[in-house]
Specification:
The complex is a heterodimer of chains A (590) and B (283). Chain A is built from 20 helices and 21 strands. In chain A, strand 10, helix 12 and strand 11 form a beta-alpha-beta unit. The longest helix of chain A is centred in the last third of the chain and has 23 residues. Chain B has a single domain, classed as Rossmann fold (3-Layer(aba) Sandwich). Chain B has an eight-stranded mixed sheet, with helices on both faces. Chains A and B meet through helix 9, helix 10, strand 9, helix 11 and helix 12 of A and strand 1, strand 2, helix 3, helix 5 and helix 11 of B. Strand 15 of chain A pairs parallel with strand 2 of chain B.
Chain lengths: 590, 283
């Protein structure tokens, strides 16, 4: 058992801070980093801001695709309050050579659709930041574009104003017109020619004030975490998705509802989350792979159904995307405060899988894995996400995702009588579904015998409890065959950041700069003890980085004998930025 | 399976005289008839909730989902949407579907999901030893209301008519021929079928003497006439002293949810192609 209680930082770590040896120093490095950004610009960040209702998300997506098409990996962060019109929305799009899934505090371009954007984001601007604005609304700030005049000249509706701003940005950033044309053709659903005319006028008027050099990556798909989870489920054989809208999980519902015919799935939006999970269990009973999606509050309503899934051994995938809690909390902001709840939710004891992917790429893979594991072990399987992941947009490389072969429980032999809960050595009972000849399939929320008939006697209660819990042994062993813990950054470093979920991105970037190790468990239940023990080998200082107020992964690790020395916690609903994290780490170490 | 033994060997633990025996017997006869008419009972699923009624899941030798309190209807809805070829029957209690799961009942009617719901309405919580339910009469003295309830009961027939149920009926466990007719009709009805079954609780609400002289079968009632169904539904409000109509209050034909929602499956290769095509649109 590893218990880390190191009092002194290793000399090795201080090298980074003091600039000894060949290791880079932090402060000069940040300057160097800035210099790199300013001169060759292989890393560019664009902020698009305006009122809710201004189409910030779609404008942000177009900027993301422009950068995607000039060779960058993309991360888009979308920030919006819980209202439909009027509040301030903004998207930050970062294009970089390597995908990190995080944004620094300063930006290279601000696309201001209103005055407030310029005011609000002053602290993100440097002397080099180029502000491109709607000159009709924003006076004397950076590069103004006469949006109204352009629209009038083209007889274009007001809604196309964003195309003018994007056209202006493209020119300012030195993006070739052909790139704008091809991106608009794929990503503007209606009236693309008129949008292009509007954009071209702005493009022609703008100077190439801050050229961005081309990256080397071929354009790839950009997915939100929610879309990636949905696609992963589909790859895992999803038949039915059942969900009641709740931010930040609703994107999965919208995406799958829109694509249901193409993917051949049934999508249902019932009256509440209680109905959601019970319907999904009805699908599972009938042999259909189902998943539900919600956030913490909705999941509270699902817990009786979760316990039923555990007792009745019905396979189910649950996507829980966290936001700032407790209760309604900050509905459109991020958080990681539901891990301990998910670990323990539901009365009684039964095995469960919990995976927490850190970005869209991991979501594609692990969502398919979760579905297969649920059906192989007849257990509930959680995909634990958060707002940053769900509603962030990431570059993905589908070709790099390992194949997830279809896994399922053994099928009933067909020889009656069928025992739904046959007590096998693995604890996994062969499955049959209604409609199969001579199968009498009885599932039961009560303690039950192998046939599924209610029992109350002590001996069989113990026998069947052991049968259910025995599945966890196989599950634990199986999960050891998966890359359940990512170790990245400098894998030999003696100081390590312990993180989970979407903070993977910021931890990786900071660790790359500071030369630290990153340990990111993806599988959180069954607890990957052996893999984690291996991952922390040689670590003398373990720092938990989490977006909650108590350190929930730290507590989980501690329960298994791996004790983080320090915790860096953020719980204001906003994701860590590399700047913040570097500052916190250096404060902590010095 | 043909000519199957319909009842399991599980020991029956309903009280002597319990109205559930009549419902079980009725359902058994209906299932046997369905089988005789060529329906495979492999394609039938019975869903129950929690309460005395729910033990019926253990007693029937057919596919069953013994679910949790109040949640029979969403389970049944999921099963039907997953496989519309199945015949899905819900046995649910008045505590189950009029209290804990009332919302699901209303939405099932609103959606016209093709399931049949039998409410074992004994107007008392039996298994938890005698508390009032949503259909107990005003002033009912139960263990949680020793001075008598302060609430009027719900009228489930009126509620279901208002919610859009396409088959609404009331039966009584002492009128088994009628009950069998209603259950058969409910199962045959394409859409949401609701049958409120008045049953006595032999231990906590033994009101045979109240029901028997008051019940009558609806004569010459036009079941397609919604207004007349509403009038008949108001005749007895589950509280006042009045005649109690039995039979089918209302029936109409509308497309059912399972016809509209359930997707046709596509083969894995087409699915992979669809995913690939989608990714192109995001590049």
């Amino acid at each position: 058992m590893l218990i880390r209680k190191t009092k002194c930082a290793s000399a090795g770590f201080f090298w980074f801070l003091r600039g000894e040896g060949s290791m880079p120093t932090y402060l000069p490095l940040k300057k160097k980093y800035q210099n790199i950004r300013e001169t060759i610009m292989k890393d560019v960040t664009v902020l698009v801001g305006g009122k809710a209702g201004d189409g910030i998300n779609s404008a942000g997506a177009l900027v993301a695709h422009l950068l995607n098409h000039i060779g960058y990996s993309i991360y888009l962060y979308f920030d919006y309050p819980s209202l439909i019109r009027g509040g301030h929305n903004f998207a930050i799009i970062r294009g970089s050579e390597k995908s990190f899934g995080t944004c620094w505090n300063h930006v290279d371009f601000v696309l201001a659709l209103n005055r407030e954007t310029v005011e609000r984001h002053k602290d993100k601007c440097t002397n080099e930041t180029v502000i491109i604005s709607n000159a009709d609304l924003v006076k004397s700030a950076g590069q103004g574009i006469p949006v109204k005049a352009i629209l009038d000249a083209e007889h274009a509706p007001e809604i196309m104003g964003n195309s003018a701003i994007i056209g202006g940005f493209a020119k300012a950033a030195g993006i070739e017109w052909d790139v704008v044309t091809s991106v608009f053709h794929v990503h503007i659903p209606k009236a693309v020619d008129l949008n292009l005319k509007v954009a071209k006028r702005a493009y022609d008027q703008m100077e190439k004030v801050h050229p961005v050099s081309k990256g080397s990556k071929p354009p790839g798909p950009l997915l939100t975490g929610n879309e990636a989870i949905g696609l992963g489920l589909v790859k895992g054989g999803l038949d039915a998705y059942v969900s009641y809208p709740m931010t930040p999980s609703s994107g999965i519902l919208h995406f799958l509802a829109e694509q249901q015919e193409k993917f051949g799935i049934t999508v249902v939006h019932p009256e509440n989350e209680i109905a959601v999970i019970l319907m999904a269990l009805g699908f599972a009973y009938a042999g259909k792979r189902s998943a539900v999606g919600t956030s913490g509050g909705g999941f509270c309503l699902m817990t009786e159904g979760l316990s039923l899934a555990g007792m009745a051994e019905l396979p189910l995938v649950l996507v829980v995307s966290q936001r700032t809690g407790p209760s309604t909390g900050l509905p459109t902001y991020t958080g990681q405060s539901d891990l301990q709840f998910i670990l323990h939710a539901g009365q009684g004891e039964y095995p469960r899988l919990i995976v927490a992917p850190g970005d869209a790429q991991e979501s594609l893979f692990w969502s398919a894995v979760a579905m297969n594991v649920a059906w192989k072990y007849q257990v509930p399987a959680f995909i634990l996400a958060d707002k940053t992941l769900s509603e962030g947009t990431y570059s993905v490389d589908p070709a790099a995702i390992p194949e997830v072969p279809k896994a399922e429980s053994p099928r009933w032999s067909g020889t009656a009588p069928y025992l739904r809960y046959a007590d096998t050595p693995s604890g996994i009972s062969p499955l049959a579904f209604p409609g199969m000849k001579d199968a009498v399939i009885k599932v039961n929320s009560y303690a039950h015998d192998e046939a599924g008939i209610t029992i109350e006697d002590a001996d069989r209660t113990v026998q069947m409890t052991k049968k259910r819990l025995r599945k966890e042994e196989g599950l634990t062993e199986e999960m050891q065959g998966y890359p359940g813990i990512n170790v990245s950054g400098n894998p030999g470093a003696s100081t390590a950041l312990l993180c989970w979920g979407s903070t993977k991105g910021v931890c990786n970037e900071v660790a790359t700069i500071l030369g630290l190790r990153v340990i990111q468990p993806i599988v959180l239940s069954p607890f990957p003890l052996v893999q984690l023990q291996h991952a922390v080998r040689g670590v003398t200082r373990l720092i938990a980085v989490e977006e909650n107020a108590t350190g929930q992964l730290a507590a989980l690790a501690e329960r298994h004998g791996i004790v983080p020395d320090k915790k860096i916690l953020r719980y204001d609903g906003r994701p860590f930025s590399p700047d913040d994290l570097i500052e916190k780490i250096t404060e902590m170490i010095l | 399976m043909t000519g199957r033994q319909l009842i399991t060997g599980t020991q029956n633990t309903w009280c002597p005289g319990c109205g559930n025996f009549s419902i079980q017997h009725t359902l058994k006869n209906v299932l046997a008839e369905m089988e005789q008419e060529g329906k495979s009972l492999d394609d039938v699923v019975l869903v129950s909730g929690i309460g005395c009624h729910a033990k019926i899941a253990d007693y029937f030798n057919i596919n069953t989902f013994y679910s949790i309190h109040g949640r029979t209807i969403p389970v049944a809805t999921g099963i039907k949407l997953a496989n519309p070829k199945l015949t899905v029957i819900c046995c649910s209690g008045d505590g189950d579907s009029y209290a804990e799961g009332l919302g699901h009942l209303i939405f099932a009617a609103k959606r016209n999901i093709d399931i049949t719901v039998l409410i074992h309405n004994n107007r008392v919580y039996g298994l938890t030893t005698g508390q009032y339910t949503p259909t107990s009469p005003l002033g009912f003295k139960g263990k949680s209301t020793p001075a008598g309830t302060a609430e009027y009961p719900l009228n489930p027939i009126g509620l279901m008519l208002a919610s859009g149920a396409t088959y609404v009926a009331r039966g009584y466990t002492k009128k088994m021929d009628l009950l069998k007719k209603l259950v058969s009709e409910g199962i045959a009805h394409k859409g949401f079928a609701f049958i409120d079954v008045l049953q006595i609780c032999a231990t906590f609400f033994p009101v045979v003497d109240y029901y028997t002289p008051r019940v009558y079968e609806l004569p010459d009632h036009d079941r397609t006439d919604f207004e007349s169904a509403c009038v008949k539904a108001r005749e007895w409000d589950y509280n006042s002293d009045a005649r109690i109509a039995l039979g089918t209050f209302f029936e109409r034909s509308l497309p059912s949810l399972d016809d509209k929602v359930a997707q046709h499956e596509i083969n894995p290769a087409d699915r992979i192609r669809a995913v690939r095509e989608f990714l192109v649109t995001r590049t």
